[in-house]
Write a structure and sequence with these properties.
Layout: E1 4-6, E2 13-15, H1 16-50, H2 57-65, E3 86-87, E4 93-94, H3 97-106, E5 114-118, H4 124-132, E6 135-140, H5 143-155, E7 161-165, E8 178-183, H6 192-196, E9 198-209, E10 214-222, E11 225-234
Parallel strand pairs: 5-6, 5-8, 6-7, 8-9
Antiparallel strand pairs: 1-2, 3-4, 9-10, 10-11
Helix pairs in contact: 1-2, 2-4
The protein binds S-adenosyl-L-homocysteine.
């Protein structure tokens, strides 16, 4: 039986179920507001923490305005502003915020660049780059991750990010050259295929080493010369395919 109650506006009789539904909608709107305020506070705290190691203000600003919780499943949202990687689909990970910040700063972006990212994953790093550069082209080898990243980035209103399913050739030579290239998966070496996609004066940031441990390298291309700097140890999921590792262990 539907119970009824008297509404306050004009004495119309409306079903109790509707009153409850309205009340719940109101409460969940309040919860959402509370959650987004908490996320914003947590995000500001994370940025404050990162600012001890990162002095690129544009990078810190980008992190401050991008909702990392939207790039992970609801089960991990509580940890979205801890400085650690988190699982995403297909056994992959969204990188640790400090690593995202270090890599983004190393690309030395001023807003005019076309940037290539290899390894879209959740799309979070692409969102950061989209705030720092002119355009972002990002490639990912798992269709489900391409689809999810497209969805979240469209919802957040990005119009300067192109996402492609990776093809046989590493990177995306169709749109080369790029002023900056970021590889967010571990490579066995600095691949010539990527150097070829880099503009003169361009920066390539890439983790290089074994499948399980790497050094974060920054390679700068000047004419035929490549200068490489080691930014320190890191650990990424493997880059798979041509000029990289064989298939993943569970494939
Ligand atoms: N930048 C991501 C984290 C990516 S994890 C983020 O912000 O969430 C690394 C990603 O690289 C994984 O999603 C993996 O599927 C992808 N990947 C591995 N090899 C690749 C290749 N050859 N081309 C494109 N993507 C690749």
């Amino acid at each position: 039986m539907i119970q009824t109650s008297i509404s306050e506006d004009g004495g119309k009789i409306i079903p109790e179920a509707m009153v409850l539904a309205n009340k719940e909608a109101h409460l969940s709107a309040l919860n959402r507001l509370q959650m987004s305020t908490d996320f914003a506070a947590a995000r500001a705290e994370l940025v404050e923490y990162l600012s001890h190691d990162i002095n690129d203000r544009r990078v810190l600003e980008a992190i401050k305005c991008i909702p990392r919780e939207k790039f992970v499943s609801s089960a991990y949202q509580y940890a979205a502003y801890e400085d650690r990687p988190l699982p995403i689909d297909k056994g992959q990970t969204i990188s640790q915020p400090l690593i995202v910040a270090i890599m983004s700063a190393a690309l030395e972006l001023d807003g005019s660049e076309k940037v290539l990212e290899v390894g879209t994953g959740s799309g979070y790093q692409a969102a950061i780059l989209a705030k720092l550069a002119w355009r972002v082209v990002t490639v990912e080898r798992h269709q489900v991750l391409v689809d999810k990243a497209k969805q979240v980035l469209a919802k957040l209103g990005y119009t300067n990010i192109e996402i492609h399913l990776a093809e046989k050739t590493l990177g995306w030579p169709q749109q080369a050259p790029y002023e900056a290239i970021i590889v967010t998966a571990a490579a066995p070496q600095v691949s010539q295929v990527l150097i070829d996609q880099l503009a003169d004066g361009g920066r390539l940031v890439i983790p290089v080493g074994s499948r399980y441990e790497q050094d974060l390298l920054k390679a700068i291309k000047q004419g035929d010369k490549i200068t490489t700097h080691n930014l320190g140890p890191c650990r990424f999921v493997p880059l798979i395919g041509n000029a990289a590792w064989g298939k993943e262990e569970d494939e």
